[in-house]
Fold Glutamyl-tRNA reductase.
Amino acid sequence: MHIIVVGMSHHSAPVDLRERVSLSGDAHSHVLTQLGGSRTVLESVVLSTCNRTEVYALVNSTHAAHDFILTLLANTSGVSKQDLSEHMYLKQGEAAVAHAMRVACGLDSIVVGETQILGQMREAFQTAFEAGNTGAMFNRMFREVLHVGKRAQTETTVGQHPVSVSYAAVQLASKIVGGLEGKVALVIGAGQMGALAAKHLSAQGVKRVLLANRTLAKASAIASEIGAQALSLDGVEAVLKDADIVVSATGRPGHTVRAAYVRQALVGRRGRPLVLLDIAVPRDIDPACAALPNVYLYDVDDLSGVIDANVQERARQAALVEDMVAAGVRAFSDWLTEQEVVPLIVALRQKGEAIQRDVMESLVRKLPHLSERDQKIIHKHTMSIVNQLLREPIQNVKELSIASGDLAYASLFAQLFGIDSVKTDDAAAESRAVRLMDVLSRVLGEVSHQGQPNLHPVLR
């Protein structure tokens, strides 16, 4: 069996193609149904958002499943199989599991660390689960995926360090005025940077956002989304006196905010500071404003330090999340190995209990004078002997199997105890002879872990 993911995202495909392949409603249900009825796909989860469409699958044959999924998506979307194959990626084994975890953590998103994707991943799994497309393998895998995603949100600040100029401007303004709550912000320009700045300001709790633009209709459309007030550029001079923070991002020739406007706005403010953030190139705000009392003017060069700090901190937080992903992959691999050792452990316990039961029956026959109380005491102590003898070997074979990533140790363990319950692949069989002496010396003794443990074959 193999775990794979076949998909496309903003990394691999343009937005017009992603839109055509995106799955929702009946299309999503149709794909799940077709996957569920496929002989080559054993389990599956389909994730489809505005920026990605991905099929996670547990399969018998990677090549056959890949071809089946491409054909299915081509038939569903109307996009040719050739076009799809040029823009879709295939990840297998450990890379597929790690990818799912990185997606859930927001590491693979356009805005690194965004939290919406975790809910979308949870919904995708729940939909597949309810459709009967998941089994023990994917139920456990996606439990681990969602756990790692939740850890990334709660234990790191990876999503709290955007590196856009607009966010850096808002962050700097907040530091200067001691927080944004209760403040009035004026954003000049409703282009990409201006709109983003207005949204950041609104999201961080300013009392009021004023959005000025040459085209009032464009300002009104954005303002309606965030609860701001729209006005034309002609109204900027009149509202400057009300603003605590001004973010200007028109990039028009000449100064949109003149020193004379600001000087007039200072009248009656009683020393209340005015923060001017010029994120336009060419600059919107007259540099002479910096000389006015209680006015703090910053341009894009001044913001570079804030952006650099955010880049460094985001990289540090992302590294922490990558460590969580690696730990999540390891935990899932260990679980896979444990599941294959379970039949051996059950068989061993059953054999131990059978021996103890035979001994008890023999004692009762040979010592008929034993009271019921005596029999209970003997039963308790003989079972204790069995449990004590088996406890350490069972723990060791679990740990050795996890550390090695295959069932060679478990197979030899079964042979030592006369249990025929573990099947291994050819690679494990070949490695068993090499490990024989090491296993014999350690299987009933202390386990020593050295080096990096190997992954379960399903993840290789």
